[in-house]
Amino acid sequence: MRPGLVLAVVAVLAASSAFAQDKSAYDAVDPFIGTGGDGHTFPGAVAPFGMVQLSPDTDILPFKQSYARAAGYRYSDPTILGFSHTHFSGSGHSDLGDVLLAPVSGEAKLEPGEADKPGSGYRSRFSHDGEVAQPGYYAVTLTDSQVRAELTAGLRTGLHRYTFQKGARAQVLLDLRTSIYNYPGKVSWSRIRVAEDGTITGFRETRGWAPGRQLYFVIRFSKPLVGKALYNREADVPYKGFAQPGRTPGDRAQVEGRALVGVFDFGTIDRPLVAKVAISSVSEANAVLNLSSDEKAFDFDGLRARTRADWEKALGAVEISAPADTRTNVYTALYHALLAPSVFSDVDGRYRGPDNDVHEAKGFTFHSTFSLWDTFRAEHPLLTLVQPERRTSDVVNSLIASQQESPYGLLPVWQFHGQETWTMIGYHAVPVIADAWLKGIRGFDEKAALDAMVKSATYAPYGGLGDYMTLGYVPIDKEPEAASKTVEYAYDDWTIARMAKAMGRSDVAATFEKRAGNWRNSFDVKTGFLRARKSDGTFRTPFDPTAINYGSDYTEGNAWQYSWFAPQDLGGLVGLMGGDAATVKKLDAMFDFDNSKLDYSHAEDIAGLIGQYIHGNEPSHHVAYLYDYAGAPWRTQARLTQIVKSQYRPAPDGLSGNDDLGQMSAWLVFTSLGFYPVAPGSNEYVIGRPFVERAVLNLPNGKRFTVRAVGLSDAAPYVVAVTLNGRPLPRSFLRDAEIRAGGELVFTMGATPNKAWATGVKDRPMSMTGYGK
């Protein structure tokens, strides 16, 4: 063969190989990431921000529920109970798992049975070899049931497609007893009704993480029923589990109680059976209304294709060029970041609010599932860049509506399905609203928003706020986790001041700007740590900066993590630490701390340790970027390399901690692009280092912002130079307006750090009181 032809063939083959490896954004997503370890994600079918999260549940029985199965599914489990329609993605607490369906061949057993005893119940073994998970689609073969089950979902509905073996008797079991975070008596009341046309409706009220939560549902099948049986498995003694005697079923059309099971018989069928399910917090009638909102018939493939298109559009907000594993990690992170907060209003705009009454969202779509202590940091700022502005305005309108409907007049703290759980600390809906408004996002009542923010920040009975407003800190002898609450309140207050000042409300701005400095009141200069103070002003003793205990001085952390929480005034913190060199030394001591003699096994959320840096939990998430504030950005670059390599992998156990409704994932998306929102509300992003060769942000305003990393490789992890739109960028931060204007950010990477870049005080990110003050 002629040399020229050889070269041409080699070039074609190389291009073909590269193309084959370069999966689309959709195909690069792996929903199994996080389903093992402590990620707490689920692999099932969901649309972007979908109201229905249709996913398999592996083991959610009473007395067996554990922290490890907060999402209902755990990759290492050998059996699947069935498929339920509501799930959290990566939460540190469990609930949901509503309306579980299980296809069975032949006679249906009414109890789930034991995982290690095949055939003892309706649960079935399965193999990962036949399992498929893609955005909006999930499939698995149930070995014992001899059914191929496929799932897809629209915004408010879920479709199941069950393929039974030829000649098998096809039945579907509905179990209203099962629930994630299950325990005896969780179901307060429930109902199943079967109409003459075979439509099944019902509801249940649960008293789980969110007490008194009501959920209504409707199910229709593509084949007519040939038989049905409705059971109340409740005994005449207090409910102690599933294995109750039960009452004899009749051919009745309705059953009510606290332990309901329905079995629906389709006889022998020669085609796949499709089940269509919709849910509502309002009523059975509204569930029926939602049922036709995504797919009017039973076109499983049609809905799957439409949901895939929705995901392709959503994921297309970021175009990534990077090695295969990196693309999988980052696109899966983006996928997880686009699951919540989820749509919760019905197709007619109605939803059940925190007062347990029905309301109507007028001019916006109500969203819920707000894990705000986690997601204010990076998840919500990311959505302002990768989603249409309408999404963020819907979120803000939902927060305002929730405050107006709250019995206490407070913004959500940790809300799901419209119900408040009061989990975690702070009033972190405040920075979400302020960050959106300060970025120019509108579509909500700014006066009502600021009023809601102020009301939440001045409600004295909440979390020691009365003492905080009087003393300037939360006293530990009156309120647990006081050190954490003091600094988190102070940051939230700063965002109120920022928004109020921009709105011309100087009176409000002055009050909250003063409060924003309260973080200093709990910082002990002598020890160099944030500490809890008592009402008399003294610091609580004894003091151990490594101690982690729930309900102690700190929230899911210790002094090492929380001493760095002053996002609004990190220049001031550098000053209290003793200056640049002392700050760098303290940061290094945190990352290099020898943990070999410490045991944190009692604290479930403490995972992903690098010394005393805890990437598996949120208080540490901004810390690697703090070297920038001390004039040592090359140290930030080195620490980010250490974190990304050790905390993220394209595998089921590839997340070091709970994804927390997208926060762990949003951290990776931002960090991979080369910058991170250390202080939402500042309109700045702190520069780290990129982990992708090229990325394009297709912004909500139609502009494109490109990031390029020239010379990026494992051997070249340091930033040598940075340009913005062709001009040298001497500072270690980007402005939000610079990104939204479109343009190009170029990093030149090298094997050794540039210790002269962005070291001067004027080139560092903003700080409320400046540097060294």
Automatic annotation (TrEMBL):
Residues 1-20 form the signal peptide. Coiled coil: none annotated. This is Alpha-1,2-mannosidase. NCBIfam families: aman2_put. Pfam families: Glyco_hydro_92 (PF07971), Glyco_hydro_92N (PF17678). Keywords: Signal. Residues 286-750 form the Glycosyl hydrolase family domain. PANTHER family: PEPTIDE N-GLYCANASE PNGASE -RELATED (PTHR12143), SECRETED PROTEIN (PTHR12143:SF39). Residues 29-280 form the Glycosyl hydrolase family 92 N-terminal domain. It comes from the Bacteria.
